[in-house]
Amino acid sequence: MAKRKKQNMYERNNTPIRSAHNEDVEYSQEMADADDVEAKQRAEAADQRQER
């Protein structure tokens, strides 16, 4: 098997990668799945650690 040269997405598709950097996202309990709930709990725990 030949090794493929690693390329970033910009080089492969010739389009910039869209980023959600600094994008506000609203949390909805009704639409949340298990991963969303876990992520929210982890974020809240991290916030509490920072407040110490």
Task: Tell me what the structure shows.
- This is YfhD family protein.
- It holds the Pfam family YfhD.
- Residues 1-52 are annotated as: Disordered.
- Residues 37-52 have a biased composition (Basic and acidic residues).
- Helix content is 44%, strand content 0%.
- The protein is an all-alpha fold.
- The model has no long low-confidence stretch (mean pLDDT 77).
Rg over CA atoms: 18 Å
Distance between the termini: 52 Å
Low-confidence stretches: none
* Residue fraction in strands: under 5%
Principal-axis shape equals elongated
Helix/strand order, N-terminal first? HH
Helix/strand class: mainly alpha
**Continuous helix count:** 2
Number of strands: 0
- Helical content band: 40-55%
Overall pLDDT confidence: 77
Give the biggest sheet: none
Organism: Exobacillus caeni
Pfam families: YfhD (PF14151)
Protein name: YfhD family protein
Show the helix and strand layout.
Blueprint: H1 9-13, H2 34-51
Short account of what is shown:
The protein has 2 helices and no strands. With 52 residues, the chain is mainly alpha-helical. Residues 1-52 are annotated as: Disordered.
